[in-house]
From TrEMBL:
This is Alanine racemase. It comes from the Bacteria. The keyword Isomerase applies. Pathway: Amino-acid biosynthesis; D-alanine biosynthesis; D-alanine from L-alanine: step 1/1. Catalyzes the interconversion of L-alanine and D-alanine. May also act on other amino acids. Gene3D superfamilies: Alanine racemase, Lyase, Ornithine Decarboxylase, Chain A, domain 1. It comes from Christensenella hongkongensis. One of its GO terms (cellular component) is cytosol.
Length: 372
């Protein structure tokens, strides 16, 4: 993960900072550990989607600046104040409410104005809306404008016309701010922008999925920023058996053996985040003393267990051996992109699906403070 961040930094101007996006438990990787790693790799700020996500970061002693990239309701704004977070705002009402909270708490708060330039999700959409927000900020002595940002909808597409249009709109708003003597930190690039549009990097980029080793799409220039997947998933083989021709496997008997078949049961299922759409479609890697071999999933993925065909695995497979569910072994690979294609989804969802039942073990620690 540290190398992914360092490689991204090489594609950016030296003055540009990296905001490490650790929302959704760092895309399933573990927010606390990934935050420590991001800090040691040079990230200047963290980003979460909700104020609640920052509670464990502060509880772990992480004192980096943290911005919230989604809207916060009144309770979340109060929590943001308590945790010294930087909320995203885009309405006068939220700015005025934040000033009330600041006055009650005797604190100041830094905010980031969000602009909707073509995503049609959240943010300021017109000069009139911007003017209203600036008027509110001018009346709020304890609310400080620290940053402004937008989010590209199609920066991972080969055709950059939409991203270029969004950036042009965004710069129109920046011009208005500058004319009023306001020069907040500017950030627009996400992972795809960091890779393909470094000219739009400005003061900071928000590095998300690519921090964890995956490209946002197959259309970005992968040679610009080399990446390596961070997460590997292993599961123990709990049973090995041979079934006869005509015997079926799993719920619904969706797999029937056309030959004498060696079957291994692996202790992972959709209750752990292994997608049920991988039934009769996915594959794992099994390693013996004779090498590493692909073993296809047969039958339906169960809640806690999955069966694989090890007939063509050379060597002895024993109970207690580990199957590679996600990762590499012996020159073979099962990636989140591979699984996503089979499930007709994206790598983000595959990574996020692996839940608390799958223990995390972190490697590459250099000091007690750098725990990944």
């Amino acid at each position: 993960m540290k190398q992914n961040i360092e490689n991204a930094a090489k594609n950016l101007p030296p003055s540009c900072g990296i905001v490490a996006v650790v929302k959704a438990n760092a895309y399933g990787h573990g927010a606390v550990e990934c935050s420590f790693a991001a800090k040691s790799a040079g990230a200047r700020m963290l980003a979460v989607a909700l104020a609640e996500e920052a509670q464990e970061l502060r509880g772990a002693g992480i004192d980096m600046p943290v911005m919230i990239i989604g809207r916060s309701n009144p309770d979340q704004l109060r929590l943001a104040m308590a945790l010294d977070l930087q909320p995203c705002v885009f309405t006068p009402d939220d700015i005025l409410l934040l000033q009330q909270i600041c006055k009650q708490e005797g604190k100041r708060c830094s905010v980031h104005l969000k602009f909707d330039t073509g995503m049609c999700r959240i943010g300021i959409r017109s000069e009139e809306e911007l003017a209203a927000c600036l008027d509110a900020l001018a009346r709020c002595a304890d609310v400080e404008l620290n940053g402004v940002f937008t989010h590209f909808a199609n920066s991972d597409a080969k055709d950059k016309a939409h991203a270029q249009m969004q950036h042009h709109r965004f710069m129109g708003y920046i011009k208005i701010l500058n004319e009023k003597g306001l020069y907040p930190a500017i950030h627009a690039d996400n992972s795809a922008g960091t890779i393909d549009l470094p000219q739009f990097s400005h003061d900071m980029v928000r590095f998300g999925i690519s921090m964890y080793g995956y490209y946002p799409s197959d259309e970005v220039k992968k040679d610009a920023v080399p990446l390596a997947p961070v997460m590997e998933v292993f599961a123990e083989i709990s049973n090995v058996k041979t079934i006869d021709i005509g015997e079926s496997v799993g719920y619904g008997s969706t797999f029937t053996a056309a030959r004498k078949t060696r079957v291994a049961t692996v202790q992972i299922g959709y209750g752990d985040g292994y997608n049920r759409l991988l039934s009769n479609r996915g594959r794992m890697i099994v390693t013996t003393q004779q090498g590493s071999f692909y073993a296809p999933v047969i039958g339906r993925v169960c809640m806690d267990q999955t069966m694989i065909d090890i007939t063509d695995v050379q060597g002895t497979v024993r109970v207690g051996d580990e199957a590679v569910v996600l990762g590499n072994a012996g020159g073979k690979s099962v990636s989140a992109d591979d699984m996503a294609r089979l499930c007709e989804t994206i790598s983000y969802e595959i990574l996020l699906d692996f839940n608390y039942r799958v223990p995390r073990v972190y490697t590459g620690s250099e000091t007690a403070g750098d725990r990944i």
